[in-house]
Amino acid sequence: MLRRSVFQAVRVSRLNPAYRASSPVRQTSAAVSVLARTYSSPSPVRDYEAQLRGMLDQAARNVEAGVRAPESDDKSLRLIMVAKPGAGKGTLSSRLVKKYNLNFISTGDVLRHEIQAGSELGKAVEKIVAGGGLVPDALMVELVRKELDRHVGESWILDGFPRTLKQGRMLNDVLTSEGRPLNLVVNLNVPDSIILARIKARWVHLPSGRVYNDDFNPPKNPGVDDETGEPLSKRPDDTPEVFTKRLRSYYEATAPLLEMYATEYPDCLYSLTGNTSDEIWPQLMEVVAPLHERAGGYAAEADKHVRDEADDLRDTTEVNVGDKTAHIQ
Ligand code: AMP
């Protein structure tokens, strides 16, 4: 039922007639009109959106031409999410983890953990992370390789990595040589203006990780934590200035990455668009469920129950997913 509605939306897309119902790369008509509204004036961002559409077209053409991602006997789900900072990948990952019992590996979380613990790595990257820059590729690949080694033969979602073409290529090499290439690449496409508004409204109680949002989850008393009465603060990288910088680095570094997946993994690449995680969630389920089913074991919990519970955890406390603590976005 859902599959049909997504396909129908694709059929009525006027801006992108190249998308056909058979294409695995889908965008909804609502998504396309959002793009048209957001990017109606010439800007580098508009160029990026044109580029994104070009990549998706290319992926669709490649699929039609029979290009396939590397095959594997290991049917576990190996998923990466590519997303602008603050696009809601944390929220959506939590829901996936809860519903499908996936391992969750977030490079941002691992780095924050290292920083908080005051480790060598943490000290080396602290300034970069606080300033919204990218940690050097070699460091990141080493860190991710270690994390993935702990989950051989298991399903996982890798969050926040790869962020550059170089990281993507290194990840492909590692995984393909181990016979477990990626089998799903999801791009989350949320308008910049929406993300910026969310970031401005977000507050965190740093000692506990409790997160508040002025719009839909405000503290009982403005500026203070409900449980301890201690002051709330902004995540150091949660400011409009840092966001703009992170966004720029996203456009510069991540677009080539998506292009690579459109060329080499076209049948695995999906671009999902919406203003909220609730809008994107059904699209995400649409692409994850068949793969998870194939991996053996579809958890049939009621969807709403899963969503509410996962979001509840995120809204009030840190989320323990797998053996990591997911940072709250
Ligand atoms: P995130 O929570 O994914 O937004 O990551 C927070 C910060 O950690 C980013 O702004 C970067 O400074 C750093 N970081 C996380 N993942 C990566 C990565 N794959 N490559 C480089 N830096 C990263």
From TrEMBL:
InterPro entries attached to this UniProt entry: Adenyl_kin_sub, Adenylat/UMP-CMP_kin, Adenylat_kinase_CS, Adenylate_kinase_lid-dom, AK3/Ak4_mitochondrial, P-loop_NTPase
Region (NMPbind): 106-135
Keyword Mitochondrion: yes
Its EC number(s): 2.7.4.10
Record domain Adenylate kinase active site lid: where: 202-237
Pfam families cross-referenced by the UniProt entry: ADK, ADK_lid
Subunit structure as annotated in this protein's UniProt entry: Monomer.
PANTHER family in the cross-refs: NUCLEOTIDE KINASE
Family membership noted in the UniProt record: Belongs to the adenylate kinase family. AK3 subfamily.
Protein name: GTP:AMP phosphotransferase, mitochondrial
